[in-house]
Please model this.
Amino acid sequence: MILVPLPRLRIEPLVRNALAEDLGLAGDITSAALIPAGHRSALHMISRQAGVLAGFDLAALAFRLTDPSVSIAQIKQDGESLTPGDVIATIEGSSQALLTAERTALNFISHLSGIATLTSRMVTAIAGTKASIACTRKTTPGLRVVEKYAVRAGGGVNHRFSLADAVLIKDNHIAVAGGVAEAIRRAKANVGHMVKIEDDVDTIDQLQIAMAEGVDAVLLDNMLPEELRLAVEIVAGRAITDASGRVTLETVAEIAASGVDLISVGWITHSAPILDIGLDAVIAPGE
Model:
């Protein structure tokens, strides 16, 4: 799968808001007090842990917004593996501007690289199966587009971006609608022909009903591996099978071995630890 960079139009508001939050009402008073206005520096962006890079464009934009004349030599690309000590990029520009943007840049790239790294580990754990690792809508408010991009950088795929992308009938929808069959019928009657319908099922009985009504995908929620294998047999390729719940790095391989098409994992976005990435000043001899 080709990793398509996010448009600047989508990421610039996020970076601008983060910089504005950090600048507060008076700006970077530390850098202004300590560093002459015309001073210039070079920084190496370095990975301090092994992982997968994601979010470089957001980090670079933080520097460019504080210093439009900044020079950035990128060495590592999003989606590439990192080892401790790898230089990701060299950034040269106004010392005041670089230090002002430093924390915002690192917050974005460390967070998103952490998501890409965790996703990559999940993908590696299911290598050799047909399953893909998918993220969910369990994302940080306001950061969904970049967190889902980070999942793709780690080799995963994206589930819905929003409630408008597709119909996903969950257990509470079923309870309110009066049952699995009625919920599916209402969905079919009220959405356009281009909209896919996925039904959340907790039991094999619910799955049988969903398949009788006809859906595009089934979310197999919190099923044990033996139940997942039976569900895949029942579906028999007539719909996409999407396993969810009980997914960890320790269980994901067995879940994938059941033959499901997708494994949806919320915690790769909402609970991924950051990847430790730092910025080190390059000091010339005599400075």
Summary: Residues 8-122+273-282 form a domain with the Aldehyde Oxidoreductase; domain 3 fold (CATH 3.90.1170.20). The first strand starts at residue 40 and ends at 47.
